[in-house]
Specification:
heterodimer, A: Rossmann fold, two-stranded antiparallel sheet, 10 helices, B: alpha/beta, five-stranded mixed sheet, 13 helices, 20% strand
Chain lengths: 274, 308
């Protein structure tokens, strides 16, 4: 997909996210909006997947380790053709395939269920190791939050990724700086993340603006360093694209009112001509 | 002949790998204790050590299973089931991934390592997880059979293995193995002893001792705790009226509780005697001493039956 088109799709995805969460009455808009470019660019410029054959054993894999941002994931999967866009409005409703956190038993396109923070990183390591073991060439992508990096399991998984030289694995860190109880630094300092990730053997690309679609695509297009797992450490803006949500910790896990939804949609519509 | 089920497990993996090229084995720096080292020696490129990281062990196995492999992952039950419980629950059972959890050194017979390592909660923890199959093989032969059966089925399985060497059954004590189907090892009419794992050998000894006292005891090897062979429980509840559940684990949430649910649900008027660890932690000691100390040996079973 052309970058110009994809940029417009990112705006649509943001509108989907706001509408879905409003319709559901609960959900996580902040981190969904901050990671739009990371998820969309991965699915539309990198991944070899076929919605007609979602279980293709040779497909590329994506793990939404920060499973609470399911809305952005579902919107991307729907636009990629895994299920009808209209189904997005069933998010979090009884009997919906769109569970509050992704369920791979229910929804085509979801490679593995997530929701418990940290576990997706380790699952992704297992997928990449499984590919290597079988001599398969597919690539594995995993999106993590920043607060999620406080989970010890994540570092166990990074160690293993590096130990097993998984250069078929790309971690995407949505570093928006905010988590439920406050800023990362207030809750539990992450320190020099870039240095920590490099010390764990990852090949780090740090993006000053992880909401800059061209920059994200360029990072994803950077050829892998043989023998090293890649980590794209992306500084993003929580709530990106909806001015009253941007950088507001209160929008981590709250649904907009109907009025707030309308205001957000109007703002995103207006951004079309920018 | 005596052999530990963990030893049989290592051997079973080697056999399995000969015919199933999807099988891989993961360990968390305990390969020489869990005996996956036997597999590693035979198939070094199909054995993965993840280091001392049990949560990672389980999730890496989960990820590998999504690529079509059949991972067996092993460490001590205390850490593989205890520490990694939530990984098992959310990353294995919830997406119903095809991972086999074969954990060793379960129960109080871990011995001198003591209470920190004596996992008595694992059966209850795995039983409560939706869709989990829970197997406690009684001896080496049953371990071979259940490893093969676990690989054959699609979905998560917990196999509970022991550190201590125990008798390998011979002759007509060797029964065909079917997951979820209890094996009657000895018929009896006064009491039916349902046992799993290393308690099966104790139950057989207890039945001999009871016979000397004129008590006819049936012995049933309840190797699969979930799904439980409820028909077998109902049959013997009606026939004997007095049942024993014998497990080398907490009496809370394990085989005894599973059997009591069948009795209550069916409103069956049978008495149930629970032999197991009575809501206390283990401690250091030799396995045989510990079996006596916690009332799990054949003599203790006999005493409880005669008192009831």
């Amino acid at each position: 997909m052309e970058t110009r088109q994809l940029k417009d799709l990112c705006r649509e995805i943001r509108m989907d996210v706001v509408k879905m969460i409003t319709e559901a009455g609960s959900g996580h808009p902040g981190g969904s909006l901050s990671s739009v470019e990371l998820v969309a660019a991965t699915y539309f410029t990198q991944m070899n997947v076929d919605p007609a054959n979602p279980k293709d054993p040779d497909r590329d894999r994506f793990v939404l380790s920060k499973g609470h941002v399911a809305p952005v994931y579902y919107s991307v999967l729907a636009h990629r053709g895994f299920f009808p866009v209209e189904e997005l409005w069933t998010l979090r409703k009884l009997h919906s395939r769109l569970q509050g956190h992704p369920d791979s038993k229910k929804l085509p396109g979801v490679d593995v269920a997530t929701g418990s923070l940290g576990q997706g990183v380790s699952l992704a390591v297992g997928m990449a190791l499984g590919a290597k073991h079988q001599g398969k060439s597919f690539h594995v992508y995993a999106l993590t939050g920043d607060g999620e990096l406080q989970e010890g399991l994540v570092w166990e998984a990074f160690m293993a990724a590096s130990h097993y030289k998984l250069d078929n694995l790309t971690f995407l860190v949505d570093w928006n700086g905010l988590q439920i109880d406050g800023t990362n630094d207030e809750v539990m300092s992450l320190g020099d993340l870039n240095a920590k990730l490099r010390a764990f053997g990852l090949d780090v690309i740090e993006l000053k603006d992880g909401n800059d679609l061209e920059a994200v695509i360029a990072a994803l297009n950077t050829p892998a360093t043989p023998g090293k797992p890649r980590c794209i450490l992306a500084h993003t803006v929580k709530g990106k694209g909806v001015s009253f949500m941007e950088n507001q910790v209160g929008w981590h896990g709250k649904a907009p009112s109907k009025e707030q939804c309308a205001a957000a949609i109007a703002e995103l519509e207006a951004a079309k001509n920018e | 002949m005596n052999k530990a089920t963990r030893q049989a497990y290592g051997e079973a993996l080697v056999e399995l790998a000969k015919t199933n090229d999807k099988v891989v084995v993961l360990d968390a720096d305990l390969a020489h204790a869990t005996m996956t080292s036997i597999f590693k020696d035979a198939y070094p490129d199909r054995h993965y050590n993840v280091g001392i990281a049990e949560a990672d062990l389980v999730d890496i196995a989960g990820g590998m299973s999504t690529t079509g492999l059949v991972p067996f992952c092993s460490t001590f039950a205390m850490f593989g089931i205890g520490r990694a419980f939530e990984q098992i629950r959310n990353s294995i059972a919830y997406p119903r991934l095809n991972v086999k959890l074969a954990m060793t050194h379960a129960g109080i017979t871990v011995g001198p390592d003591g209470g920190s390592h004596a996992c008595i909660e694992d059966i209850a923890l795995m039983r409560v997880v939706p869709g989990m199959t829970v197997v406690v093989p009684a001896d080496a032969n049953e371990t071979y059979a259940c490893v093969a059966a676990a690989a054959e089925m699609d979905g998560p399985v917990y196999i509970r293995l022991a550190r201590m060497a125990t008798p390998v059954f011979e002759g007509d004590m060797v029964k065909p193995f079917t997951l979820g189907k209890a094996n009657v090892l000895r018929e009896g009419s006064d009491v039916a002893i349902f046992a799993c794992g290393i308690m099966v050998a104790e139950a057989l000894k207890a039945a001999d001792l009871l016979a000397e006292q004129g008590v006819s005891a049936a012995v049933i090897n309840m190797h699969t705790i979930k799904p439980l062979d409820a028909d077998c429980v109902r049959e013997y509840a009606k026939r004997c009226g007095k049942l024993v559940a014998a497990e080398e684990a907490s009496t809370i949430g394990g085989l005894g509780d599973a059997i009591s649910s069948v009795l209550v649900d069916g409103q069956l008027p049978a008495k149930l005697i629970r032999v197991g660890v009575q809501d206390v932690f283990g401690q250091s000691g030799e396995p045989e001493e510990l079996m006596r100390e916690y009332g799990l040996d054949a003599e203790s079973i006999v005493k409880k039956v005669l008192e009831a």
